[in-house]
Specification:
single chain, alpha/beta, Rossmann fold, 19% strand, CoA-binding protein, NAD(P)-bd_dom_sf, CoA-bd
Length: 134
């Protein structure tokens, strides 16, 4: 993963599906998504236990969300072992980027996503990287 992959993801991705986005303001997923929303990105919450987060309709899955939204980036706030099916969905819906937050790494799923043409970033905070590149 290079700085150019991070720059490419941030430059080309304006609609971000956040897998595991919590409706609780004290959670990292909420804070990161709110920050990106405040900086002009459209947030698509993926949380089967929520109906709305940050004023946006929440969807149970990426596949469901992609029926209604064009998703550029899939940002994952899930455990590393949960990533393979999420990566497969990101590929299937035609996302441009798969971003795994700090502490989330799955090399096999990342390689599959890269092979399918997605830009992949692992173990990095979207908000921190965005702040550094502004």
């Amino acid at each position: 993963m290079t700085q150019s992959a991070i720059r490419q993801s941030l430059a080309n991705c304006h609609t971000i599906a956040v897998v595991g986005l919590s409706p609780k303001p004290h959670r990292d997923s909420y804070r990161v998504a709110k920050y990106m929303q405040d900086h002009g990105c459209r947030i698509v919450p993926i949380n089967p236990n929520a109906t709305e987060v940050l004023g946006e309709k929440a969807y149970a899955s990426l596949t469901e969300a992609a029926m209604h939204e064009r998703i550029d980036m899939v940002n994952c706030f899930r455990n590393s072992e949960d990533i393979p099916p999420i990566a497969a969905e990101a590929i299937a819906i035609g996302a441009k980027s798969l971003w795994l937050q700090i502490g989330v790494v799955h090399d096999v799923a990342a390689q599959q996503a890269q092979a399918a043409g997605l830009t992949v970033v692992q173990d990095k905070c979207l908000m921190v990287e965005h702040r550094q590149l502004r």
